[in-house]
Amino acid sequence: MAQGNVDSAKDLAAKSEHQDRLSEFDEEVDTVDPKKIKDIKKKIDLRICLVLGVLYTASLIDRVNLPVKCVSRIATSSLCYRTLNFLISYVAGMGDPEKGLDLKGNAYTLLILVFFPFYISFQPPMTAIARKVRARRFLGFIVTAWGLVMVGHGLVKSWHAMLALRCLLGIFEAGFFSSCAYLLSTWYVRAEVAKRNAAFYLLGSLIAGFGGILAYGLSKMDGVGGHAGWRWIFLMEGIITVVFGIVAYFLIVDFPEDAHKSWKFLKDDEIKIVIDRINRDRMDVETPPFKLGLYLKNALDWKIWFFAANFGLTSVVTYAAAYFLPIVLRQGLGFSEAAAQCLSTPCYVFASILGLIQSVISDRIGLRTPFLLFNCVIEVIGVVVLGYAKQSGVRYFGAFLIIGGANSNIPLSLTYQANNIRGVWRRAFCSATIVGAGGIGGIIGSLTFRSQDAPQYR
Question: What is the pTM of this model?
Answer without folding.
Answer: 0.73
